[in-house]
Amino acid sequence: MTAEALGERLFGALIGALELCTVEVGRELGLYAALRDGPLTAAELAKAAGIDERYAREWLEQQAAAGFLTVSGTAFALVPGASDVLLDEGGPAYAGAAGQFAVGVALLTPRVIEAFRTGEGVPYSEYAHVRHGIAGFNRPMFDHLLTTTWIPAVPAIESALRSGGAVLDLGCGMGYSSVALALAYPAITVRGADLDEHSIVAAREVAAAAGVADRVSFTVADAASVDGDYDLITVFEALHDMGDPVGVLANARTLLRPGGSVLVADERVSDEFTAPAGEVERLQYAFSVLHCLPATRAENPVIANGTILRAPTLLGWARDAGFPAPEVLGIDNEFWRFYRLR
Ligand SMILES: C[S@@+](CC[C@H](N)C(=O)[O-])C[C@H]1O[C@@H](n2cnc3c(N)ncnc32)[C@H](O)[C@@H]1O
Known about the structure:
Layout: H1 3-28, H2 31-34, H3 42-49, H4 53-66, E1 69-72, E2 75-78, H5 82-86, H6 97-118, H7 128-150, H8 155-162, E3 165-170, H9 176-184, E4 188-194, H10 197-209, E5 216-220, E6 230-236, H11 245-255, E7 256-267, H12 279-297, H13 311-320, E8 327-328, E9 336-341
Parallel strand pairs: 3-4, 3-6, 4-5, 6-7
Antiparallel strand pairs: 1-2, 7-9, 8-9
This protein binds S-adenosylmethionine.
């Protein structure tokens, strides 16, 4: 990249970063929600959302300047279909969590800078916006792909779940994967486990709201020392965050019932370091610097991998944990690669 191209690239990135912060303003204050039913003037938006009119006008004009809203006279409206992207949490097109992510990592960046100096970590529990951002991004995949595409791609797992069984969801976060499994397979029980207490509190609420709290339970626990016995153990975008990933997989192996499997989904990055990298890997690397690596360093880790969990590394961990022939599954997904260990 030339110096001139670098300057242009940073300028474009600055526009994107600032616009993401304005998306978070709109999400948090319910401004997009107020626009759901039709165009509003600044005065109408201010009244509907309970905000100051002068700020409402500036935000509306900025959103229209960015191309996120249309304007006709003094009335501003969502572009057609925008409510699917900005408001329909859990819908297949939802991307409204992007602002939460950006603000969430920015808020903790001074702590990360200090951590670079000291070598210490920044606990996952302190990244409150990011916790919601992760759940907001991953929930559409759990609601729309997990039980319609991913599980059916492994017929043995699908048929085991159809007839019941026990599932352990390690690093379950806010519980959307655990709940999606329970909703699709009415005879199973699911236990979600996560180190982060805030996530577990939220996960219990998610399960109760979905009406599956009788079959889905959640525990604050380190995945390396959870107990029980299970037909399926899942780890969705969490193994790379865990401070003892080999210990986690070795523990999971001891918890599997005969015929059971561990299903891991983690980042779809290249097999070895390449630069410049593709867009997904660039996103994941930035997230690793600002969140995943500092969060794992706070676990007093055996291994602090960061977000970039390459397939050869994961397969090596699985073998070290006692799974002789871990498989990469042929499930197509832009962000994640899937592995079956048994
Ligand atoms: C990127 S989030 C993914 C959450 C969830 N699986 C999802 O896809 O929305 C990673 C999760 O791993 C959890 N985690 C990190 N280390 C852990 C450990 N040692 N044991 C259990 N959970 C852990 C974090 O608290 C966080 O909730």
